[in-house]
């Protein structure tokens, strides 16, 4: 039991540093092409920070631990909004554009609702997976159409773009190193997490929704907190929005294509609606003044802690 706990935290550490390499390499690689910050956050950084969820859920699905695979994604999406944006807003108020509130956040809400609708029959089938992957393609097309800078969003300095063009080989090395770290960390987390949960009599769903979801959300927490601290709100908000969309369309879509994922009725009644509510809450919280202030950040944090308390008690 002690060895399993040690291996679990080793897995989190390997996963975290693997994600750090992947985020740094992929974001700098995108900057070298002059892509605007919000789009980098919603696509490149979001995909990179979603890779821990991908590796963990994919391994869990292949090993037959469908509850852990689904719980990891649902819990991560709730943590991304409640914990990560909450912490970022407490550090420094997070500013957004009206387009983000009226377009990008509703896309995230739509992805959450689509997941709930697909799971109503108690299983995410291969057909559901195909629909999600197709929806991801549509989302990426939307991002490509909006890849250039628009009014009210930060522009990339010409010198930065020119400098990063000379570091593409180094960035590719970081990306490959990060992928290896993610695979190794995910394997350790899944094996030890399932063992710990079964030893303590805790369901795989609860383990996935809480501990493993928090562990796989560490890259998003690091990326968004640092972005907020540096005043790069576009990158931090885009990271959370894009990561939640990738978690549903990409991670669960691919997992469902490989092996159908059963979804418990209790999850349909509580955890999935909570995930949708967290996503929807961002619209009224950000609409006035186009900012997520410290008061709103504390509210999101309190709501997340209440959710975790409800899971265990």
The number of helices is: 13
Overall number of strands: 4
> Roughly how many Å apart are the termini?
23 Å
| Alpha-beta classification | mainly alpha
Number of domains: 1
Q: Average the pLDDT over all residues and give the rounded result.
A: 81
List keywords for this structure.
single chain, 313 residues, mainly alpha, A middle domain of Talin 1, two-stranded antiparallel ribbon, 13 helices, 82% helix, 3% strand, globular
Task: Characterize this entry briefly.
By secondary structure, this protein is an all-alpha fold. The chain is built from 13 helices and 4 strands.
Question: Could you characterize what this model shows?
Answer:
This protein has 313 residues and is mainly α. The protein has one domain: A middle domain of Talin 1, CATH 1.20.1420. It is 82% helix and 3% strand. The chain has a two-stranded antiparallel ribbon. A two-stranded antiparallel ribbon has the order 2-3. Helix 1 packs antiparallel against helix 2 and helix 1 (2-31) packs antiparallel against helix 7. It is globular. The model has no long low-confidence stretch (mean pLDDT 81).
